[in-house]
């Protein structure tokens, strides 16, 4: 890693092209992409790219995931972002930035993709489920309307064969049955 001195990796996602998307903190709070181009033994064709968090309209990247269409969904302290062309990781758009689906300013801790390509955003304000194209809020779960025991959701795992969604919080784990199955 040519950026080792100022980048600690806290998370990792892999896109459809085999590129590894890494984020962390310390002196560097953006993303680093690395692609070995299928040749782990040789480094001559490896590519590295360092993308500042400002490219994601934020000061930090909290999480990232590749969805079923190959788009990269990035969670920041200022809302979700989407990279529609993973080959150009520094070009993103504000996601769900319309009157029907405005998540701008929301702290996104984690993102999980369910079997039908919905995006599940774990935030400091509960869980938001976005449609497969990200244009609509399908559902929102909070301590007031669901089994969540805390609105600050830091991890989400969905069991694809049962549709059960598990939410990790600082107060424990909650489970919710969903219709979204593989």
Write the layout of secondary structure elements.
Elements: E1 8-14, E2 20-25, E3 31-35, E4 47-51, E5 63-66, E6 72-76, E7 79-83, E8 93-94, E9 97-98, E10 101-102, E11 108-113, E12 119-123, E13 126-130, E14 137-141, E15 153-158, E16 164-169, E17 172-177
Antiparallel strand pairs: 1-2, 2-3, 3-4, 5-6, 6-7, 7-8, 9-10, 11-12, 12-13, 13-14, 15-16, 16-17
Keywords:
4-stranded antiparallel β-sheet; mainly beta; single chain; 182 residues; 17 strands
Explain the overall architecture.
The protein is mainly β and 182 residues long. The protein has strands at 8-14, 20-25, 31-35, 47-51, 63-66, 72-76, 79-83, 93-94, 97-98, 101-102, 108-113, 119-123, 126-130, 137-141, 153-158, 164-169, 172-177. The strands form 5 sheets. It has a 4-stranded antiparallel β-sheet with strand order 1-2-3-4, with no helix packed on it. Strands 5-6-7-8 form a 4-stranded antiparallel β-sheet, with no helix packed on it. Strand 15 (153-158) and strand 16 (164-169) form a beta hairpin. The mean pLDDT is 88.
